């Protein structure tokens, strides 16, 4: 059961349509329970999370990290869960609503079902 973590800097008033694009797990490799965590370096990031045709959240505020450069703690911060079928796209869009660059700290965990 892989755990993937990713951080990117999102420029002021910028949008990343899918932070998982181009990664090994952009598409679910097998049927799995997906659990996800998204944290931000400060208030001002919004996320949209979807798997295949399932939209889990649209333009939701991202909680700031408790300590500098911290990924979500399992299970406390893994607030998104969905069953994904093999081949479904995992989409996590991040939007920065502030004038300055902010970082997001995203994690996804895939458990075969």
Write a structural description.
The protein has 113 residues and is mostly beta strands. Helices cover 0% and strands 52% of the residues. The chain contains no helices and nine strands. The strands form two sheets. Strands 1, 3, 6, 7 and 9 form a five-stranded mixed beta sheet that branches. A four-stranded antiparallel beta sheet has the order 2-8-4-5, with no helix packed on it.
Helix and strand arrangement:
Blueprint: E1 3-10, E2 15-16, E3 32-40, E4 45-51, E5 54-61, E6 63-64, E7 80-84, E8 90-96, E9 102-112
Parallel strand pairs: 3-6
Antiparallel strand pairs: 1-9, 2-8, 3-7, 3-9, 4-5, 4-8
- Give the overall shape, derived from the CA principal axes: globular
CATH architecture: Sandwich
Summarize the amount of helix as a percent range: under 10%
Helices and strands: which structural class? mainly beta
Work out the radius of gyration.
Answer: 13 Å
Number of helices in the DSSP assignment: 0
Order of helices and strands: EEEEEEEEE
Unreliably modeled segments: none
CATH class: Mainly Beta
**Averaged pLDDT, please?**
96
The largest sheet is: 5 strands, mixed
Proportion in β-strands: over 45%
The figure for the number of domains is: 1
Q: How many runs of DSSP E, i.e. beta strands?
A: 9
CATH topology: Jelly Rolls
Through-space gap between termini: 10 Å
Care to give the gist of this entry?
This protein is mostly beta strands and 113 residues long. 0% of the residues lie in helices and 52% in strands.
What key phrases describe this protein's structure?
113 residues; five-stranded mixed beta sheet; mainly beta; four-stranded antiparallel beta sheet; single chain; 9 strands; Jelly Rolls
């Amino acid at each position: 059961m892989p755990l993937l973590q990713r951080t990117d800097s999102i420029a002021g008033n910028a949008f990343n349509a899918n932070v998982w694009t181009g990664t090994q797990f952009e598409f679910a490799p097998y049927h799995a329970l997906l659990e996800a965590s998204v944290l931000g370096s400060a208030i001002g990031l919004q996320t949209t999370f979807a798997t295949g045709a399932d939209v889990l959240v649209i333009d939701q505020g991202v909680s700031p990290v408790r300590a500098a450069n911290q990924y979500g703690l399992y299970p406390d911060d893994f607030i998104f869960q969905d069953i994904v079928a093999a081949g479904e796209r995992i989409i996590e869009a991040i939007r920065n609503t502030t004038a300055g660059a902010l970082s997001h700290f995203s994690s996804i965990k895939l458990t075969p079902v």
